[in-house]
Amino acid sequence: MSELGPIDEYRDLFENAPCGYLTTGPDGRITKVNATLIAWTGFEADNFIGRRVHQFLNMAGRIYYETHIAPLLRMQGFFNEFALDFETATGERLPVIAHAVERRDADGGLLFTALVVIKATDRRRYERQLVDSRSELQRGLATERETAELREQFIAVLGHDLRNPLAAISAGARILQRSGALQEHKHLRVLDMINSTVTRMSDLIDNILDFARGRLGGGIKLSRDGNRPLEPVLEQVVDELRTASPQRVIETSFEIAEPVNCDRTRIGQLVSNLIGNALTHGARDQPVHVGAKTEGGVFELWVANAGEPIPAAAIEKLFEPFFRGDVRDSRQGLGLGLHIASQIAQAHGGRLDVTSTLDETRFVFKMPLVRAVP
Q: What are phi and psi of 191, to 5 degrees?
């Protein structure tokens, strides 16, 4: 099989191009037409040569071409993206999208005009397929990437963080089994350890469930109650965390003078997550400060700790799920606590903010006081 020469290659490319192609001379008569356009229209090549373009258009196309396209083409030398309706040999309508351009010599004399057309149906189908495939690809990639990242992060941190609490429960149970009646005080200490560990596991599970509900679109549901005081709930949370971390100091200052119409359980969860974060990341030889007050129609709650400041880059992602920053593995959590706390704040119509300096890292939750329904 012999190879095609340059002229034959050009001829093959011209004749079998996926688009229709014709040229007209300076007098406006067709001088060349390719096999593609011949096949589309059903006319023979001899039917085209010597005739004018408008003779192959339907009536509306003829008027549009002669009154609009041709004059502008002569003025500017080209015309991009215009629609025409060819008429086939059988009298059927053939909608196309066309592009026309003139070629002139060095003196400005017109050599020929080239007209390139594609079927409008092919163009629309191609564009639709392109848009659909791009959208489908983007959705698929985004979903796959998000699912993979969440699955990997979740499995890694869940396996790590639940292993230690379960080990503590198992060890405590074994100690109780081996203990005698004369070691009752030791039993009590072990039971305290078990209770604090169970509390921590419950908090982890609550955060996981809340995150899952949020991902499914349910959001955080509230059961507001402004008729019961909030301060006992805050004191209970602090006491539980003091028991769980007896070596740490947690100082409180509560001045809640007005009713706070809120979900008391959720606010307890919020402050528990904030204190837990302060105990994990704060300076171990400095106290954690917890405060709450009502003033000027606003309920404000804060948790502050000393220690290394949070980097600015980390603050931007602090309330994102699974973000844990750079801490030792033995002190990492699921990375959901601050995210859930921020979601609880938003559900109450408030917001959770953070400031971090060399002196102090402080999380502040503020929400408007809403009158309780009698």
A: -65, -40
